[in-house]
Write a structure and sequence with these properties.
single chain, TIM Barrel, Jelly Rolls, 2 domains, six-stranded antiparallel beta sheet, 15 helices, disordered N terminus
């Protein structure tokens, strides 16, 4: 009878999914990602108890967060594991293991017999938030820095088996090179054992497999021909989810976080569209590597998924910062040119994502922008909220074009627009919902301030000339610009979609535009 009842439950869940679209991530969902160290590295002793853990989730009650994704591992796990290695376990080769706040907090909680993820899952359900467990499939933070204080992320299993990596250690130039190679059965078995442990440990609503840490998981140069290894891995995850759906008596979803562009993922052997069409995954989270992109094209994913993939939710992911240009490799993230995802930027990003057809939004690493981390759960990023709020739409680029690091022939990156000469520039700026009335401002930042104050600029937006212009006296936050100027336009000059901004001037030779954005207040 129990078996029959379980089958009925699963059939009902499937029917609901068919009728309502995606049963796991309904339209307008807002997912908050908690990484594997955030709470623990900030927790003082008074927060290392069950009550404090419950309060951490209870603070989200009445807010706008619909899903809470709990990252439980980097290379090592932040919980006591039976199949892998915990962050507080000393490395075999270390005589002295210096604890840091993260590893100490995890150790103390589990020595007290407290499983923070079990506490959070229970509390999430009590306040109506969907709890998910998230796995970084191939995290390689600081893999080239064995003396780094975060070396607790590094597995003994990884150190003991250099033959299982994408490249030999002598040839490794970056973190991607150090990643596990999933063409090896030993790697897939090791990771699947960890996924099974998730299902056995916790009664969650879903499991999310994060392919963005790292997106390169196969033998260099053979990614397309070896793509079946990642597909088989995801099929195994799906089978586990279905198996435990019966045991837990409720449907358990499967999500993946993958590159923004379908072509980028496929070049790396990550065939997420195929997984969606075949029912292997329920949610596809399209994501940058490090820099939020304000032109996320969920519509292209939905078109590629077609009729077979209508039940798959396409969710747009953002990070805590963004940049207008430059390659963001593992060792050369452009911090100086990075903008923080403040609330107005989040609103502009959300508006663009929803205008492109995204079913929901996913916030990654937002704890590194504290004001947004605390405010967003309260105000949310719903369509109507974003459209009515002050919002900013900067020019950004897709940072997943990893140049020589990306597999196969370099994929042309047509998204990078900056820098451009200050004397004659043509730019396009994406806006989801234009303001209905009033005025808007376009801010343009330059890499030099020399002789710029006296320059007479000509600026047009979709062919309409600026009605006013003024100097920005705080240019530095805009990509570390040395000089910036505001151009005012009537709201009617802005349209939904791509807006053509043209700048002409007798600026000094060599002066470049390094930043541009539309501000709707």
């Amino acid at each position: 009878m129990k078996c029959a009842a379980s089958i009925v439950i699963l059939l009902c869940a499937a029917a609901a999914a068919l009728a309502e679209g995606n049963a796991f991530v309904p339209s307008g969902s807002l997912i908050l990602s908690e990484d594997n160290e955030n709470y623990f590295r900030n927790a003082r002793d008074e927060f290392l108890n069950r009550e404090a853990l419950e309060s951490y989730i209870a603070a989200l009650k009445g807010g706008k967060i619909t899903h809470f994704f709990m990252g439980v591992n980097g290379q090592r796990t932040s919980y006591r594991t039976k199949v892998s290695e915990a962050v507080w376990d000393p490395l075999k080769r270390d005589k002295v293991f210096p604890e840091i706040a993260w590893t100490r907090s995890c150790r103390i909680l589990f020595e007290k017999g407290i499983d923070p993820y079990a506490v959070w899952i229970k509390k999430c359900r009590e306040i109506g938030i969907s709890p998910w467990i998230e796995m970084r499939i191939n995290d390689q933070h600081f893999a080239l820095s064995p003396k780094h204080r975060f070396r607790a992320r590094t597995l003994d299993f990884w150190r003991d088996h250099p033959e299982l990596r994408r490249k030999p250690e002598s040839q490794a130039r970056n973190w991607h090179d150090c990643a596990f190679d999933f063409s090896h059965k030993e790697v897939r078995d090791y990771k699947l054992a960890l996924v099974r442990e998730f299902f056995e440990n916790w009664d969650m609503d879903g499991v999310s497999i994060d392919f963005m840490r790292t997106p390169l998981n196969l033998t260099p140069g053979k990614e397309r021909e070896q793509a079946h290894f990642l597909t088989e891995f995801m099929q195994s995850v799906r089978k586990m989810a279905d198996e435990f759906s019966k045991k837990r008596r409720h449907k358990i979803g499967v999500a993946v976080r993958v590159p923004l562009k379908i072509s980028y993922g496929e070049a790396a052997g990550i065939n997420a569209v195929e997984w969606g069409k075949r029912g292997i995954v329920d949610v596809i989270i399209i994501s940058p590597l490090y820099q939020t992109h304000f032109d996320t094209r969920a519509d292209l994913w939905k078109a590629a998924l077609g009729e077979e993939g209508k039940r798959v939710a396409v969710v747009a992911a953002g990070d805590h910062g963004f940049s207008p240009y430059e390659c963001a490799g593992m060792r050369d993230t452009p911090r100086a040119r990075r903008g923080a995802m403040t609330i107005p930027y989040c609103m502009g990003w959300a508006d663009n994502c929803y205008a492109s057809g995204a079913d929901g939004l996913y916030l990654y690493n937002m704890m590194y922008t504290p004001l947004s981390w605390f405010e967003l759960p309260k105000v949310g990023l719903a369509k109507e909220i974003a459209r009515k709020s002050p919002r900013q739409y900067p020019i950004t680029y897709i940072d997943e074009d990893l140049c020589e690091d990306f597999p196969g022939k370099k994929i042309p990156d047509t998204d990078t627009q900056l820098p451009q000469p200050a004397t004659d520039a043509t730019l396009k700026i994406k806006v989801g919902t234009p303001p209905k009335s009033g005025t808007i401002e376009v801010l343009v930042g330059f890499d030099t301030a020399k002789d710029m104050e006296s320059v007479k600029f000509e600026a047009t937006l979709n062919g309409e000339s600026a009605t006013d212009t003024r100097i920005c006296f705080t240019p530095y936050p805009y990509g570390k610009a040395a000089f910036a100027r505001f151009f005012e336009f009537p709201a009617s000059a802005v349209k939904s979609g791509y807006n053509a901004l043209k700048i002409k001037s007798p600026a000094p030779a060599g002066a470049q535009i390094i930043w541009a954005e539309i501000q709707a207040r």
